[in-house]
Every structure is written in C-alpha cells, then in structure tokens.
C-alpha cells in the first residue's frame, strides 16, 4: 500500500529579492514497510523533502498525499495531529528535552497522546530494553553519549508505533560502531514491527541496508532503485 506520494512538488524559498528553488517538480512514492534511503549531495533538497512529507514545511506547488489523502492544504492543527499520531521524527541533533530522563523523554509523547501514566512508563522501559540501554532509564541527556542520545531519539520516535519514521542524517554524529548498532536496531524495527523508514543520508551504512534508494540532485529525483535484500 502507498503510504506517501509527492506529485510535481516544488519548494521555493525567498530571502529578500533572492529566490532559491530547493525542489523542482519532485515525484516520489513511499510504500508501507519500506526502508528507503534518500541520497544526494548537500543542498540537493533532502531535508526539505522530509520536512514537506512530515508537514513541517509546505510545498510551493504540487501535492502531498499521506495514506491516500491529499494533505497539501491542511491547516497547522490538522498537520500537527497527523504528526502526533502517524509520524515519528529522528533528527541529527537528537532534540531531546534536557531536563527529562531517558525514560521521561520517551514517555512524554505518549502522555501527550493521553496514554495512562503506568502504561506510558511500561512502554518506555520496553523500548529502552529494545534499544539496549535500559540501564540509562534515569539518566538525563547530558549524562549520555551521542549514540545513547540517538537511541533515546529512536525509541521516542517509535513509541506509539507510527506509520512512518522520518530520519534526517541520524548516524551523522556517531562513530562507526555506534552507528552500525543503531542501524541494526532500526532495521529490526522495520522487519519485526513493520515500521516504514525514510532516511535522508550520506552514510553508506544506511544505503547498504536500504531496500530502495532515491537519488536527489539539484531538487530533482534523478534515479530510484529497488533492491531485493536476501535475509539470513
């Protein structure tokens, strides 16, 4: 089933009298269960594309579809509700709440979705175990390494089992060992829980695990490749 579809999407930023066309008529489809890498040089429009899919930014022209609905002209409240229920975000900069513990950072979006506190706590502990840092449950972000913070960000993003995870350069600040461990966890979530992932990335380790690779250059998708991965 098609989860996301972009149809002739353009995005123009205007600064003073200068116009910059970040996306130029992008057509793109993302299906449920995919583990897709969006690659291309810096400035090619990858982050802009993720932000438009996630409703954090709007297209200048064209249309954006999510689960068969045209969300292009949805207002801020409807888009916020879509993100709250259907989309998880993993950012390069982690975006954790500094005064909250690891467990509380994961609990927070669940409590905002009206989960009972005991169930939110149980889910947070379950996810901390899944990302292999249960022992960090009561630590705050400034007491963790970059890799540990990113694991918390992953756990938070998948806490309420969203339909889609948008991951913007999630391994960029991590060393090789930590990055690989995190990718193994995300790949497992994709295969075992059916979570769809779309990565913006320069990391060949992400590309090696992807089952679809889309290449973006100068705001245009110039190539898409589906790859059959053999398990085992």
Structure description:
The protein is of the alpha/beta class and about 230 residues long. It has a single domain, classed as Rossmann fold. It is built from seven helices and ten strands. The protein has helices at about 45-55, 75-85, 100-110, 115-130, 145-155, 175-195, 205-210; strands at about 1-15, 20-30, 35-40, 60-65, 70, 85-90, 165-170, 195-200, 210-215, 220-225. Strands 6-7-8-3-9-10 form a six-stranded mixed beta sheet. Strands 2-1-4-5 form a four-stranded antiparallel beta sheet, with helices on one face. A hairpin with a 2-residue loop joins strand 1 and strand 2 (about 20-30). The longest helix is centred in the last third of the chain and has 18 residues, at about 175-195. It is globular, with a radius of gyration of 18 Å. It starts with a strand and ends in a 6-residue tail after the last strand. The mean pLDDT is about 90.
What's a concise summary of this model?
The protein has 232 residues and is an alpha/beta fold.
Task: Quickly list its features.
232 residues, alpha/beta, Rossmann fold, six-stranded mixed β-sheet, four-stranded antiparallel β-sheet, 7 helices, globular
- Please state the structural category: alpha/beta
Radius of gyration: 18 Å
* Main beta-sheet strand count, sense and barrel state: 6 strands, mixed
| Cα end-to-end separation | 26 Å
Named CATH architecture? 3-Layer(aba) Sandwich
The counted number of beta strands is 10
List the helices and strands and how they pair.
Elements: E1 2-15, E2 18-31, E3 35-39, H1 46-53, E4 61-66, E5 69-70, H2 76-86, E6 87-91, H3 102-112, H4 117-130, H5 146-157, E7 164-168, H6 176-193, E8 196-200, H7 204-209, E9 212-217, E10 220-226
Parallel strand pairs: 3-8, 3-9, 6-7, 7-8
Antiparallel strand pairs: 1-2, 1-4, 4-5, 9-10
């Amino acid at each position: 089933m098609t989860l996301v579809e972009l149809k002739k999407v353009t995005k123009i930023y205007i600064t003073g009298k200068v116009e910059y066309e970040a996306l130029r008529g992008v057509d793109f489809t993302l299906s449920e269960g995919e583990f897709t890498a969006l690659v291309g040089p810096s400035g090619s429009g990858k982050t802009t594309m993720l932000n438009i899919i996630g409703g954090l930014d709007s297209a200048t022209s064209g249309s954006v579809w999510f689960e068969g609905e045209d969300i292009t002209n949805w207002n801020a409240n409807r888009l916020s509700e879509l993100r709250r229920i259907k989309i998880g975000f993993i950012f390069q900069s982690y975006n954790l709440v500094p005064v909250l513990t690891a467990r509380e950072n994961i609990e927070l979006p669940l409590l905002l979705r009206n989960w009972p506190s005991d169930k939110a706590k149980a889910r947070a502990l379950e996810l901390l175990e899944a990302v292999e840092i249960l022992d960090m449950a009561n630590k705050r972000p400034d007491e963790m390494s970059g890799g540990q913070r990113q694991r918390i960000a992953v756990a938070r993003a998948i806490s309420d089992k969203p339909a889609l995870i948008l991951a913007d350069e999630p391994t960029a600040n991590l060393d090789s060992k930590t990055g690989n461990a995190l990718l193994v966890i995300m790949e497992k979530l994709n295969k075992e829980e059916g979570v769809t992932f779309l990565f913006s990335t320069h990391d060949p380790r992400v590309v090696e695990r992807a089952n679809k690779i889309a290449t973006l250059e100068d705001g245009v998708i110039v190539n898409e490749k589906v790859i059959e991965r053999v398990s085992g």
